[in-house]
Amino acid sequence: MPGSAHLPYPDSLDPENPPAPHPLLAPVTGLLGTWTGEGRGEYPSLESGFSYAQEVSFSHDGRPFLRYEARAWIVDAEGAPVRPAARESGWWRLQPEGRVEALVTQPTGITEVLVGRVEGPLVDLATDRVALTPTAKDVTATRRRYTLTDGGTTLEFRHDLAAVGLPLQHHLGAVLRRTGKD
Questions:
Q1: Which of 35, 95, 97, 167 has the most beta carbons within 10 angstroms of its beta carbon?
Q2: Per-residue confidence (pLDDT) for residue 62, from 0 to 100
Q3: Is the dihedral of CA 55, 180, 143, 110 positive or negative?
Q4: What is the mean pLDDT of the chain?
C-alpha cells in the first residue's frame, strides 16, 4: 500500500519523501501522488455516454518504475456514485531518453502492454500487445495520454479504445486534481 511506513521498503507518493526516486523517474515525478476527478465516457457499442469519477495513484519504491492504480465509478447528473466501473493496476517501467513501457491489468480479464514516451508534461502510451482471458471483451488496442497542466496540480487523462471489432477511437476523458501527498 502506498505510504505504508511500517513496511521495510515503503512506496512513496511524493518525490520529497523517502525513498528518493530513481534518476530514470525524473520525467514523471510530477505524477507521484493521488489524483481524483470526473470525466465522460462514450463508445459506439454503448447505448449512451456516461459520467464517471476516478481516482488514480502513482507511487515508487526507489527503483526505476512507477506503481499505477486506478479505479472509477459511474456517477449520476449530480455527481453521486451509482455503481463501480473500471479498475486497473500495473507498472510503468521508465527507460532512458523518456521511453516508457507499461503493464496494465484489469479484473475484467484484459492485460495491456503499452509503450510510449514522456515529452515534457505529456506521457503518451499506445498498445504494443493485449492479452485476454477467454471471457474478456475483445479489446485489440488502446492509447492513453496523461498530461500535467496548471503547474502540476491538474492531470488530464484521455483514453482511446479499439474493441468489439471497432477501430481505435475516443472512449474516456477526465480532469483530475492532486488530492494529497504521502
A1: 35
A2: 94
A3: negative
A4: 94
- pTM of the predicted model as reported, rounded to 2 decimal places: 0.92
Query: What proportion of the chain, given as a percentage, has pLDDT over 70?
Result: 96
Q: Between vectors from CA 133 to CA 128 and to CA 136, what angle results, nearest 5°?
A: 90
| 107 grid coordinates | 479484473
Cell of 73: 465509478
The rounded distance, in Å, linking the Cα atoms of 147 and 124 is 9
Separation of alpha carbons 32 and 153, rounded Å: 11
The residue with cell 503547474 is: 151
Rg (CA), the chain: 16
pLDDT digits (tens, 9 = 90+) for 116-134: 999 999 999 999 999 999 9
- In degrees rounded to 5, what are phi and psi of residue 31? -80, -20
Give tens-digit pLDDT for 76-97: 999 999 999 999 999 999 999 9
